[in-house]
Amino acid sequence: MTFSKRLFDLILALLMGLVLVPVIGGLALWLLLKEGRPVFYVSKRMKSPTQPFAMIKFRTMTVVTEDQGVSGAHKKSRITARGAWLRKRRLDELPQLYNILRGDLSFVGPRPPLHEYVERHAETYREVLKSRPGVTGLATIVYHRHEAMLLDRCHTPEETDRVYSRICVPAKARLDLIYQRRRSLCFDSWLIVRTIKGIFEK
Predict the structure, then answer these.
(1) Which of 25, 128, 147, 173 is most buried, most CB within 10 Å of its CB?
(2) 167 close to 150: Cβ distance less than 8 angstroms
(3) Which among 202, 13, 199 is positioned nearest to 106, based on CA atoms?
(4) pTM score
(5) End-to-end CA separation in angstroms for the chain
(6) pLDDT, tens digit (0-9, with 9 covering 90-100), for 66-109
C-alpha cells in the first residue's frame, strides 16, 4: 500500500469515525438487547498470501458450532431479521473501520479472502493480494449481485464451494486485477461514492 493511499484511509476513517462511532455503539447496544451475545462476528481472512487477520462485522446469523466457507442458500435460514436489515444497508460492515485503522483493510481493494481459497488458488491470490484488501472495490460493485444470484442457487456447502471456487473466484480476480492496474485516489474516491450510492438505491 502506498503512503498516499494509507494516509487517505486514515484521514477518511477518522473523519467517518466522528460520525459513525455513536452509530456503531447504538447498533451494538440494539443487537445486544435484541439478539444477545455475541454482538460481533469475527472471521479469519487474509490480507496477504501469508498474513491472516481478524475481520470484524456485526453478527447477522444465528450462532453455530462450526461455520465454514462462503454463504449460499444453505446458510440463509440462519440470517436473523435484524441481520437481514443490516446486510441490506451494509451496516454490518461498519465495525471494519477498526480494521482500516489497524491497517488490515483499505477502504477500496479486493474483498479479503478466506484462507482456504488462498491456499487453493495460490497463484491467483498472489497477484490479487498485491493490493491491500478493502471494504469495497471494483469487483464488489460490478459482481456482487451476480455472485449473490449464483450462490443463492446453491443448497449444500459442497455446491456453494464448487460454484464459488470455479466461477466467482476467477471472475472477481479479473476485476480486482483491473482495479490494481488503474488504482488511484481518484478511482478509489469514485468507487466509494458509487458504493454509497448503491446502498441508497436499494
Answers:
(1) 128
(2) yes
(3) 13
(4) 0.92
(5) 32
(6) 776 787 777 888 999 999 999 999 999 999 999 999 999 999 99
Write the DSSP assignment of 160-193 as a string of letters: HHHHIIIIIHHHHHHHHHHHHHH--HHHHHHHHH
- Tally of CB atoms within 10 A around 66: 4
Confidence of residue 201 (pLDDT cuts 50, 70, 90): confident
C-alpha cell at 73: 442458500
Half-sphere exposure of 164 (CA within 13 A, CB side): 23
**Ordered alpha helix ranges (H), 36-168:** 81-88, 96-102, 115-120, 122-128, 138-152, 157-163
Q: How far is CA 148 from CA 16, 73, 74, 166, 180, in A?
A: 28, 9, 13, 15, 23
CB 12 within 8 A of CB 107: yes
Within 8 A by CB and 6+ apart from 152, the residues are 72, 73, 76
Residue 202 reports pLDDT greater than 70: no
User: What distance lies between CA 154 and its chain's CA centroid?
Assistant: 20
Which residue do the cell numbers 441481520 mark?
83
Question: Hunting for cell 479472502 — which residue is that?
Answer: 113
Q: How long a stretch of residues is the chain?
A: 202
